Amino acid sequence: MAKVAFTAGRINGFKCQPDKAQAFLWDSTAAGLGLRATPAGKPAYIFQAVYQGKDIRLTIGGPDVWSIPQAQEKVRQLHRRIDEGKDPRSLKSEAVAQSKAALQETQLATAQAVTAGEVWAVYVEERRPHWGDRHYRDHIAKVAPGGIPSKRGTRGRGVTVAGPLHSLMAMPLRDLTAPVIEAWAALEAKTRPTSARLGWRMLKVFLGWCEEQPAYAALMPTKNPAKTKKARESLGKAGVKSDSLQREQLTVWFDAVRKIGNPAIAAYLQILLLTGARAGEVLALRWDDVNTKWKGLTIKDKVEGVRVIPATPYVLHLLAGLPRRNEWVFASPSSKSGHISEPSLPHTTACKVAGVDALSLHGLRRSFKSLTEWLEVPAGVVAQLMGHKPSATAEKHYTVRPLDLLRVHHEKIEAWILEQASVTFDAAVEPGKLRVVQAA
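The structure corresponding to this sequence follows.
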């Protein structure tokens, strides 16, 4: 096997004859270094030696990538492995393993540096299709940095206040430990326990989601760090709310609400009381959800997805009096969403005029349920109208009430509420042409 000193000229000029399968040129400087060529393929440096009594051959690479000195040094490295009793063929696999290990270390370091806010953004976008608009907006608001000029919700500062979870978002996700969250809960509970309580519940679900994601699971402790007794005790329990309209307050409440200057808000508040629906469900009504032929309202239900309730005579009257500015029933040309926002302030003002204290929008839903007790309406009917989950086996599996059966009870409820409020109208007249009369 003739050997020559490898030079650039000899390497570039080496060819394989067309009548041969392959040809070799061997280096006299580095033992075991050769150049292999074929008629069709590109030449490549090879290493040939004896390992444990057997001939072995490895491909190093082409002359276009490896210089002669680099190929010679590679051969010497492989010989040293043989002298150490190591298989030179394992060098490549070891290099791959080292490369993978280095990549994993880099990925781990990157993952450990990721902030809670970055992961929160991923979480919100992934879960958004499964949430309602209000739930999504709550998740944005609880981590908002604040500092936006506003006339409302600023505690007199003129700019919005940062959300209760904002202070945690800049921290690396791996640093959201139980002691950190407990200290956060104790601090937030001093100034805004209600908002912090909601933020804490969101945080628990978020961290539970992180535990299930391969990209973040390694950063999480074995137990959800937000689920601690100390954090729960710091934030306390939400008080049981009992605000609702009494029967004797209906007259003054209706009188004050119907005098609100914005017809959409006035109609919205009355429909809240007369349907028992959630505030956001009524706001989300589109004109396509109002079926005047079959007299039904399609409600976007957070529990069942959708439910259909009767459109009672007075409710249809209120809807017929609203202008159709866009797709939304309770439209607002000045609102970004296209519909009015939850009108807590106008309602609070109307309640003050009526002498009714501390009645929230959700209190109107509570009022609907409470007022039905005067009529002894079946509890299952009220639950179905309000969108509550059935509470008994018979309700879950055996009771199916069609819209017309619900209508019998719902119209009875509406008529009784309006009677107690001293509001009368001719229900037989076409909606929109009803003559509403306030009794003296």
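The beta strands are 3-4, 23-27, 33-37, 44-51, 54-61, 290-291, 296-301, 305-310, 423-424, 437-438.
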